[in-house]
Amino acid sequence: MSNLKKVFTLMMAVLLIFASACNKDKTDPADEQSACLLTKITWVDEEDGNEIINLEYNTDGKLVKYTFEGETNYGIVEYNADGKISKTSEYDNGVEGYREMYTWTSNFLTTTYEQKDIDGNWVESSWKEVYTIDAVGQITETQEFHKQEGTWVENSSYNLFIWENGNIKTKERWNTE
Length: 177
What we know:
This protein has 2 helices and 12 strands, in the order H-H-E-E-E-E-E-E-E-E-E-E-E-E. By secondary structure, it is an alpha+beta fold. Strands 1, 2, 3, 4, 5, 6, 7, 8, 9, 10, 11 and 12 form a 12-stranded antiparallel beta sheet that branches.
């Protein structure tokens, strides 16, 4: 997975967590929501240099586009009828080459990935992530899976998030091997 895709995956997780924290106990949601919207993320990387990601929102305060400053890469975010993220597509010079699909079921969010091969055909990734979300919308666990002979298999490590007063207190990485 490229650094760009890792950045985006991390960014989406942070935005999901940030959005759940911003939507608590609002007296006037329109005023409070605009105060919580991130517009720029600076990713510091000692090897590759800093990366600046600009974020654009629609009038409902939903992220609809992200751009990588100084590059031709950008991403488009789509939502389902329930207002939840359903797909993100990454473009380079206007050509879609990578996308993530988000499937929401009960208290789980599953992300799967596709990328274009050299012939321009979409190829499903051999890994996916599943986020467990509690009743108040907080991510409590992340688990990665990989495809083995056509079947999804859990990886041996996973992350647990411990929350306190609406904020992540600790993140623990566990290995079951």
